[in-house]
Amino acid sequence: MPIKDVLLPLVGEPSDATVAAIDKCVAVAGDLGACITALAIEEDILVRPQVIVSADLDNSTATEAVRSVTDAKSLLKAFDSAATRFGVRNEQKLQRLAAAEIPLYFAKCARLKDLSLVPVKSHVGQSEKVVERLLFGSGRPVLMCPEHRAAELRVAFDHILVAWDHSAPAARAVADALPLLPAATSVRIITATDENTPEQRQSGRDLVSHLGQHGVKATFETVKIDGSSVGMVFEAYLKAHAIDLLVMGAYRHSRLNEVVWGGATKTVIGRPPSWVMMSR
What we know:
The protein is an alpha/beta fold. The chain has helices at about 15-30, 70-85, 100-110, 125-135, 170-175, 200-210, 230-240, 255-260, 265-270, and strands spanning about 5-10, 35-45, 65-70, 90-95, 115-120, 140-145, 160-165, 185-190, 220-225, 245-250, 275-280. Strands 1, 2, 3, 4, 5, 6, 7, 8, 9, 10 and 11 form an 11-stranded mixed β-sheet that branches. Helix 1 crosses helix 2 and helix 3 (about 100-110) runs parallel beside helix 4 (about 125-135).
């Protein structure tokens, strides 16, 4: 099924990197021929002003907190400019929520979309919470755009890397990425492992055969972890082969285990090395 209806969740303050990421996300939606819905959130912020109380007053009334919001309207303005420039079909929505409500609200809105396109700030807790809630609560794939690399990212996914471990999340990710794979110039499948067992090699060959049934020519190889982390192995491979898009499953191991000990999913969500399409 082609990707025709995507969600762009927007939260936080505008910056040059954020605007560049919005621009790239809109361009990708246009390249896919999709309608993109920008959902911007004005986040409630409580600001307690500094108050100087006269020393000759015995009692004073506590100053109430001033309620403010993040600049979501500027995010929508950047989106509108990009959508007009690229001629992309679009909708724009504005909502006001408390910080704790935002991730789940995005997930609920994403359930009737083909895909969520998410600008991701490096190692920012709010970005990670939004991505995780989308993965666990929407039932739909997430395509992450790293804000720190947005200006240099390509819009066309000519070179795609599939991270394969024969897990259910990885299989889901492959299925969700199928609309993108046939148009790619190259599709590489890798299994990061130090064992390189016959079962692992056979699983990779089986995936190559499966994709061939969909008209996708792919190659498979195993890549040594060799004391590194799987997330770092992915990043090094991406750079070495000029990969445009990484496709991977999320949280093969328990989420708590990855939070405590680290893991590929946490590494990639914290700082995506490229466009990353992730499914759970």
